[in-house]
Amino acid sequence: MLTAPPMPKTAKARRPRLMTSEEFLDWLQPGVFADLIGGEIVMHSPVNLRHARLINFVDRLLAAFLEAEDLGELHRESVAVRLSVRETFMPDLAYFTKAQAARLAGSHVPFAPAFAVEALSPATAANDTGRKFAAYELHGVQEYWILDPEQLDHRFYRRAGDTLEEFGQGLERIDALAVPGFWVKRSWLNPGRLPAVSTCLKEILDAIKNRGQARKG
Fold it and tell me: What is the pLDDT along the chain (217 residues), one digit of tens a residue?
């Protein structure tokens, strides 16, 4: 069974030395999921089934949409995203435009995704809504969705100048500005009763087709 590599030694036990992203990437191994936040390693804890089902649904739906529309690449948390010298994250989902995908490195991504999705868990909620939010905002993420598998209090943010501002409050349909043509309904984001991905994808693609026909008419 794969185990995490040993944590790097520090010079003083009482005050751990902050790691750089390069040191973190050297330490990271396949199958190990962690973030480097402010120079500190934060391990990902095992997620429950509600968390897993919700991310699986969004992953499958968005990936199928991107393939149908030929719009870049989507990656799960196995891909490390280096944002700065002391911040490297492994987002639950990260979307890269076609232009970004052409610049992806071999071992990690050296720039922010256009669109990131994180699903809350008790161990990660504070960072996802705090320090990671601030880093995504600072380093140019265009859109950030924070999904709540337990309370269904989903929050959606998009770039407005230098900040990420919340949008879609109270709306049933959430349009992803960073992924042209893609949207979801809030009612789809309940891991207790997820709809079929194929049904949702057809509804999204039909909306694009109908909009195109209306413009021609």
Answer: 445 666 665 444 456 689 999 999 999 998 899 999 999 999 998 889 999 999 999 999 999 999 999 999 999 999 999 999 999 999 999 999 999 999 997 889 999 999 999 999 988 899 999 999 999 999 999 999 999 999 999 999 999 999 999 999 999 999 999 999 999 999 999 999 999 999 999 999 999 999 877 777 6
What are the tokens at 139? 């380093």
Angle between helices 49-69 and 197-216 (to 10 degrees): 30
Instruction: Choose among 44, 121, 133, 126: nearest CA to 80.
Output: 44
Residues with Cβ within 8 Å of residue 40, at least 6 apart in sequence = 16, 18, 19
Q: Write the DSSP string, 192-212.
A: TSPPPHHHHHHHHHHHHHHHH
The token duo for 51 is 């968390």
Handedness of CA 89, 126, 76, 114 (dihedral sign): negative
CB 57 within 8 A of CB 131: no
List Cα–Cα distances, 197 to 53, 112, 153, 184, in angstroms.
12, 27, 21, 11
Q: Mind listing the domains of the chain with CATH numbers?
A: 21-216 (3.90.1570.10)
Cα 121 to Cα 124: distance, rounded to the nearest angstrom: 5
- Look at strands 93-96 and 73-76 and give their pairing: antiparallel
Q: Read off the pTM.
A: 0.90
CB 115 within 8 A of CB 141: yes
